[in-house]
Fold this protein.
Amino acid sequence: TPLKMSIMRSASFEYAPHSIASVKLLVSQTAPLAAFCAGGLFIKLDRTMPLDRTTGVATPLSKSITVIHTCAVHLMICSMMTSAMLMFCIGRLSEAEGLRWAKHHWFLIRFPAMKFVGAVVLYLVIVLLSAYRTMLDEGMDAERIFCLIFGIASMTSLFMVAFLLYRDDKAAPPTVVGKA
């Protein structure tokens, strides 16, 4: 299938960094923002789960939001820690050793960014679901539907940009777009 071929081509992509500085940039580019977001997410993490007004029990929606929120916090913190561990390792290598190491560990170099992106997507889901839960009150049907449609459209545009960048022969490695 085309998807399987695309995955196989991108898996065979050989990463060849230009300098150790470019490797360090790839490893650390999301760390400051991950730290900032993790702090904000942790502070906002529901200490007490909102309960249903009629039954006094946590709703499945509230439970889901809390689980997704917890996962987003973990991903942000793990992204930050992964960056720190990789920077510690890379910082001890000479230029030649670092380039050789990076060539064979391209997945690890991208791992902090992948965790960060996953956390951001989860955070967008939290925002969408939290707004939906807040507007479950009677008489807010139009607002709830508007926010739901707006949130889904916004997230769809994010995935569309990612897809277009992935398919762009200038932004993606040559093996991803089939020009190898």
